[in-house]
Structure to design on (275 residues):
């Protein structure tokens, strides 16, 4: 039997050294083929309802789905009822959510959805591992595996015009408030530049124009019905933002209207969902 030459042994040693170095530097998700430190997540939203616990399907509440958005070192999430968000990092393929900054709206929902909110918050704060394959994001913690799809593919962006938008939450500074139970506020924009709105109590009508990511909203004429809280508070928030130049963006079935200039204690952003 031939003895391996010194040069061949050196090559083997070098190869093993390179493999060890790669493993030590963040590694690669062998199953998904994505380097853990090269996840393409910032600015993207993933949605879905494929959940497995101990290799068995874990059904979500009927009609609900999970939603996870990645911003600039922060995340936003929903599990069918309330919205939640907070500071986060995902370096090395591990999602680390700062539990002290994770906040959740307080919209009242049925008990099953409330429990699902709590379950998803627990998953997100358990330091789960993340892996990515194309448009699919996999979240793993313990025996729980969640598979979500890029919203751009799963839920195409709704149209700005012709869509009935329902107000979901009101953002004032760093505070996110859900629309109180029993209060409904809607917005609809026509191709011809007409704006109609149910403001929470009264109804309104006006004109608008759209250019780039800016809506320019003219004066809104409203009915004069007397309103009491919480309807009047929602109405004041909507009218406090819907005037002049307003930035807008559409992400799937979500419309974000952001004030260019905040006056007094007025809202900084309104979040609508398509019907």
């Amino acid at each position: 039997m031939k003895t391996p030459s010194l040069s061949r042994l050196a090559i083997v040693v070098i190869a093993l050294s390179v493999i060890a170095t790669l493993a030590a530097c963040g590694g690669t998700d062998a199953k998904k083929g994505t380097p853990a430190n090269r996840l393409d997540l910032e600015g993207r939203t993933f949605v879905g309802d494929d959940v497995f616990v101990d290799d068995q399907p874990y059904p979500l509440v009927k009609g609900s789905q999970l939603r996870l958005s990645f911003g600039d070192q922060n995340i936003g999430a929903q599990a069918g009822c309330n919205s939640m968000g907070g500071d986060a990092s995902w370096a090395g393929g591990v999602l680390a959510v700062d539990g002290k900054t994770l906040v959740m709206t307080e919209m009242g929902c049925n008990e099953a959805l409330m429990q699902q909110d709590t379950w998803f918050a627990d998953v997100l704060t358990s330091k789960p591992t993340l892996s990515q394959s194309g448009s699919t994001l996999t979240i793993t913690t313990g025996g729980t595996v969640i598979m979500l799809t890029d919203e751009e593919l799963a839920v195409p962006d709704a149209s700005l015009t012709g869509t009935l938008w329902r107000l979901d939450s009101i953002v004032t500074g760093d505070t996110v408030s859900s629309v109180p139970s029993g209060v409904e506020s809607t917005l609809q924009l026509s191709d011809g530049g007409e704006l109609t709105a149910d403001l929470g109590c009264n109804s309104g009508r006006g004109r608008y124009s759209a250019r780039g990511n800016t809506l320019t909203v003219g004066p809104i004429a409203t009915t004069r019905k007397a309103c009491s809280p919480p309807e009047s508070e929602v109405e004041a928030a909507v009218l406090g933002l819907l005037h002049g130049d307003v930035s807008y963006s559409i992400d799937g079935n979500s419309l974000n209207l952001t004030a260019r200039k905040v006056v007094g204690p007025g809202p900084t952003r309104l979040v609508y969902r398509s019907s």
About this structure: Residues 1-33 have pLDDT under 50 and may be disordered. Residues 119 and 267 are 30 Å apart (CA to CA). The helical segments are 6-24, 111-124, 151-154, 231-241. The two ends are 76 Å apart (CA to CA).
